[in-house]
Amino acid sequence: GGEPARLTFHPAHDRVVGWTPDGKYILFVSLRGVNPELFGVPPGGGLEKRYPLDQVAYASFSEDGKSVALNRWNTDRMNWKGYRGGAQQDIFVADAAGIEWKKITDWPGYDNFPMWRGGQIYFSSDREDGRMNIYAYDLASGRTTRCTKHEDWDVEFPSIGGDRIVYGCRGYLYAYDIAKGKDERLSIEIPSDRRQMRDRT
Question: What is the tens place of the pLDDT at every residue in 167-180?
Fold first, then answer.
């Protein structure tokens, strides 16, 4: 609740992509130089931190903060479907210093929105049937498994928190329970005072 507080003041566009594992920084991507770069800002405001990772679209840190899974391009917001060109998204794992890099996906379509949890990196992809779904990459074995099975609509903007991944699909919010391996559509209740306000508009 309350009034939102402005945290960044650079004229470049800032796009929030997550949090550091310790909760001390809000992660955001900003085009403040030649390429989009990853920054962090304390939730209470203050000095921003720049991470030495060039060309970042989405990013998620490991729980110890020593490694990061990231996309380097932002082609998922382009006005095309089924793109298979050279600027397509893959997922990389790098150390936080940006020295060692490893490409962990090699699908010619979309592999995006990496979300690191334990020994798994969850992400969305259209790799099986042309529909975006959530997959999990196991860091130990290198094996990728499918988590959701939406056949008619794409998974959009997944975000992880605790044991659940929340995402949009078919105009609704869904949650994938990692421990149970199941997803469910969420029921959103509008408080009565907000409902009256909506009816007046």
Answer: 999 999 999 999 99
